Amino acid sequence: MPIPDDHFAPVRYCDKCTSNGCTNDECTISPAGTGVPNSDFMIYVRAESTANCESGSTLAYASTCQQDQYDRPTFGTVNFCPLQISTAASAFERQVSTALHEFTHALGFSARFFPLMRDEDGNPRTPRDEQGNPPTFSVGTCPNGKEIDYYVEPADTTITYSTERGHVVAKMVTPRVRAFVQDHFNCSRLDGAEVESQDGGCLGSHWEERLFEPEYMTPVDSYRNVFSALTLAFFADSGWYRVNASMSEIMHFGRKKGCGFATKKCVNPSTQVPIAADHFCSSSDFRGCSVDAMSRSICSLSTKEQTIPEEYQYFPNDPKKGGVNMFADFCPLNVGYANGDCTISTNLLKLGDTSINAFGETYCPTCRCTATSLRSVDSTSWGISPARQSGCYAMRCVGDSTSTVVELTFPRSNSSDTVSVNCTKKEETLSVPGFTGTITCPDPLVVCEVDDPSRILLTEELVNSDSSTDTGDGSVSVGSDDYPDDSGDTSTTNSSGKSASASYSSSSNSSSSGLSTGGIATINTGTTTSGADGERLASLWIVLSAAWLVLANVE
In the predicted model, what is the mean pLDDT of residues 93-99? Predict the structure, then answer.
């Protein structure tokens, strides 16, 4: 489906040009279209098998086509790879998060737009030359050592570079982004949020996978993506949007883990001990709970065919051993999986043809995972392999902001009733009548989703305050290592610098619907045309429960 003529500004056509150029008497100018009324931003959507889809791991990719006089994107395009489209109900959340990821790139979350960001007064964060352009290099070497033939460099008030953990790290250091990471990790000395180091080009177009694994703007699709205030902080700092941070989701990954979690290696190569046992792992036998307690989990540890780069080696005696995901710096992550999802009722294990509930589990929308060694007294004669180390249970939070009790309820198949116990302390172990073994109490900060103060940090009056505390290295205990990656994202800028493109990858396959049609999707209210200036500010709401975006003019 072609772009309608009404969407174009006047276009100059020349049909008798030579190598020396065209003269005006050989050219005609098409009339201007009427534009797209009551719109701030327009996305052209298609589902076509292109060269970018050939790898089989790319879910979709996006590009920005046009900007207004303040550099805010006004037109964008998204292509969904048909073989990765699924109409199955179980794939709905993944399809929606993929769409939001690509829409977010088109809205300006891309390395090409980092040098174009503006402050709250509309002034460029990166100084411009007399023609209004930021510093541009036609040839040279990037801070990360990559050779370039075209690069636009953001000012050091937007992006900084440093050497950490043996490689160059880029960080976004704008005010709200910095405030978010300081509060999120509980570390006042963090100066910004790391940008993905494994993306193509000089600068990544995603958040660092190792630190923000479930965030929806990391390069690899997670089992359960989180729409956090971090990405909204970027938009608030861009100068183009105002955000409603109350619509963000809490990101438990890395939350309050301290400076060490954010700055040190995920696994200490000297001891092979993870920086946080509930996030990273070092044994393929590990069975636990995902960081958000929504699923049982496994360790994403593998042995590669080739040697892992030295700066990402955590097992010196085995340089090919590490996490599957290179975007997470080969850190073996503690990852959830579909068959262990606590919200899916059909995941409940029954022994053979019996009704025996061996672990006293329940799978429901509000059920959560915790460590356990429970076995029902009527299941002890059964052998279960592999041995369970975690389970899903019905949980209810009782209490106030100062004291939270987590009530766990267990069905007992031997007596056809239920029994409840109360957890008052994280990692406390309790016995349960009718079961051998113990249950380990979950973290109420996770299970009860206590309100995240990071949302508040997006308000103007608190951006420059320092309310976080430096907690040092965070927790260090036996746990996990690298995070796996068998496929990845790419982000590229073309040599003309006229469009930004980014793709989204997955480590799993989806069924195909065979779609190859195109269409136009608009996000309405305002006025947008290809040649129009538009408004300097637009407002962005990400409505997560309904999974849609709304843009509106700021009066």
Answer: 90
